[in-house]
From TrEMBL:
Domain named Fe2OG dioxygenase: residues: 212-301
Protein name stated in the entry: Fe2OG dioxygenase domain-containing protein
Source organism (scientific name): Salix suchowensis
Family to which the UniProt record says this protein belongs: Belongs to the iron/ascorbate-dependent oxidoreductase family.
SUPFAM superfamilies (alphabetical): Clavaminate synthase-like
Protein keywords: Iron, Metal-binding, Oxidoreductase, Vitamin C
One Pfam family in the UniProt entry: DIOX_N
InterPro entries the record matches: DIOX_N, IPNS-like_FE2OG_OXY, IPNS-like_sf, Oxoglu/Fe-dep_dioxygenase_dom, Plant_2OG-oxidoreductases
PANTHER family associated with the record: OXOGLUTARATE/IRON-DEPENDENT DIOXYGENASE
Amino acid sequence: MVTSSFLLPRVESLSSSGIQSIPREYIRPQEELTSISNIFEEEKKVEGPQVPTIDLEGIESEDRVVREKCREELVKAAKEWGVMHLVNHGIPDDLIDRVKKAGKAFFDLPIEEKEKYANDQASGNVQGYGSKLANNASGQLEWEDYFFHLIFPEDKRDSSVWPKTPSDYTEVTSEYSRLLRSLATKVLSVLSLGLGLEEGRLEKEVGGLEELLLQMKINYYPKCPQPELALGVEAHTDVSALTFILHNMVPGLQLFHEGKWITAKCVPNSIIMHIGDTVVGSFLRATEGENHPQTTGRSCD
């Protein structure tokens, strides 16, 4: 169990307090507000660029033509977008549903129960229940609470941080982490081959079988009385190798592509995969500086 030195109220507490105006720390700078539009209307648009959807069913097909077509599409999306929806990814839908239900069950607990798992960012203990501290230049906060912890490999886990409620949290998260680790290997292998490298090169670059870690962050976005003024997650790039996002079919994720913010569609039974800075760096090293995308994302949930 972890203790916290967090002084500001949780976003959930602010949301449930009945406030009509959000504190100024959560209001985005004016130049940023001009780019925040109605996310639900944006998600309905059919014109303009769209985040690609990659069907992984053929990624290990015995049919060479089918296999190569699938792999070429994945590499193309990685190079041109740096983000994509993955379908037929090999992780059962019922397991994903159980993972999402377990996360929701934790955040349904009273705040005082969740505080038993609070992190302590000031002392460098980042695992556990938390809220974003103002560590950016503008001093703005994000309208979210979260739960963050390392989930794979098992021997590096801190079991004291893992929620005891719901009772199946450890079981479903452990199974999900095992299958996700396998998916990560498949993706990294395809990206390596797409660069003309040996199959295991990128995985080796980002830590290999022994040192590549999986960390899970469950984001909780309480109802905001002024959603036009706040962001759930501010614009950022991911320092990770790969980011896999389980969504709940509610629009909110945006990607900065070719000079403008693009709202990701809600694709049923998909996992959103984002190529992180670590793999982009490996791309650059392996291709001697070719231009590959560094994808910037934000959440307007």
